[in-house]
User: Which sequence fits this backbone?
């Protein structure tokens, strides 16, 4: 019998905290989007359309990076305070690579690291 690999992801549009669940412990890692709205003074000279396109492209790369991580797991809970989790979930639903993975999403507030760990532990303990 193979061991089910479980992952919790707290995320917003620019950060993701990856929490790999096992009965003994939770291993934490992070993914950070490669963009921010800071330091964009030069963008004021460019068209709004160009800036929006670049931000969409960077957001897609962030979601793709998370998707590559999710492919390695059997069960995933994606949670957080923004709609980023819903956006990622819609992308994953359209890709057949994720059909065999049990993915759930849940709205939460901002959390401390300890609260994130407790949330993941509770979610997978009750499943």
Assistant:
């Amino acid at each position: 019998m193979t061991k089910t690999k479980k992952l919790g992801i707290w995320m917003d549009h620019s950060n993701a905290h990856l929490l790999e669940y096992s009965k003994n412990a939770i291993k934490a890692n992070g993914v950070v989007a490669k963009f921010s709205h800071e330091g964009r003074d030069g963008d004021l000279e460019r068209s709004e359309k160009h800036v929006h396109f670049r931000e969409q492209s960077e957001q897609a790369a962030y979601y793709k990076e998370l998707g590559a991580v999710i492919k390695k797991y059997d069960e995933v809970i994606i949670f957080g305070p923004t709609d980023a989790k819903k956006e990622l979930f819609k992308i994953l639903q359209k890709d057949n690579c994720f059909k065999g993975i049990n993915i759930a999403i849940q709205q939460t507030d901002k959390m401390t690291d300890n609260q994130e760990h407790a949330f993941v532990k509770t979610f997978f303990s009750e499943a």
